[in-house]
Amino acid sequence: MKYQLRKRGIACALTSAAILAACSGDLDHPMSSEDSDEYASDEYAADEDGVVLGTLESALMTDYPKCLYTWSDPERDGWGWENNRTCIVEAYFPTCQTTTSDPDRDGWGWENNRNCKVRTTTYTAPTYTAPTYTAPTYTAPTSSTCSNQEGVYATMAALAVSAAMEMKRWQPSKDFVIGRIGYDEALFISSTGKARCSDGVCANTQALLDFQKNEANNQIVFPGNVAINSGALRSRLVAKYKDQVSCERQPSNGGTTNCPVEEHTLTFQRSEKGGCDTNYFFLAKKTDGSPLQYPGQLKNKLLWADPVNPYVAFQNVGEVISIDPTYGLNEAGSSSTGSCSTACARISSSNLTGQCCSCNGASRVYSRAFWSSVTYLCK
Known about the structure:
2 domains, four-stranded antiparallel sheet, 8 helices, 16 strands, elongated, disordered N terminus
């Protein structure tokens, strides 16, 4: 390491044994041209007055104290004069741009023909903690918590079930797209989604998305005499779908909030009475039929159905998952046990026109909705 020292009144008033030797050598043995070449090598440096002082390296810090005052160095070259001796003003030394300027690692380097100070940092290797997965807890909804404002929540949950039934998975960012109904954004099935349905059109899912049409407004009635608000449904589906897409663009974190989940296949098992209405159960597997590592993460594929939706009520027990939409909106699992179906609206590929039905305690018959060939209203 080379150091360039400035004279402060005397040329060789230095305390280092190495410097004394350098000075005495210069006085007793005048340099020849060969000596001059040697001293001009990388082992030595001279100040602007031509005084060659030699290699100091670690002796620099051991033989020169730090200056008490910065005004001791009016030229701001890093060297001051206090108490009749040379001292170091560290504040005026530039910071080295690279640690390679300090091969002996004494904290001082040489760059741009002058000394520089190597920034000292303590490096602590990052510790890695493997992510742990905790299955979400499930609290069964009750009738008092099953809010279905404007019919939106029940419809969104039914869409999630229908996608699982027909597309055999929950990959909303791939299987759905945003389009327009009139001037309003609305949710539609993508070509990728349709290709996954056995009928090529995903009839049940499409019928539910048709609830977004203005013609369906106030025509679909749910338990409690709640009527669908088509405009509110469009707005909510689009907003939640965008939340889903945004989450899935985030890198996989392996945790409970992970949206890029394992590729999977959902197989319908059964339906039964649930907390809000009807629970639909699915077996979740990898696409090769092996068990999912984190089946509970599939909950994060339901952001588009609204995570606060009480009708979703996602739960998983091992590889079996379930959600809880309104009876009648999913053809599979909506078989009627009596002479009359207790559903205000039903989606069916079979003709239900004229069949007995009951809606909110009133006995009526089904008639086909004028905007959909597979939707029947109990009127």
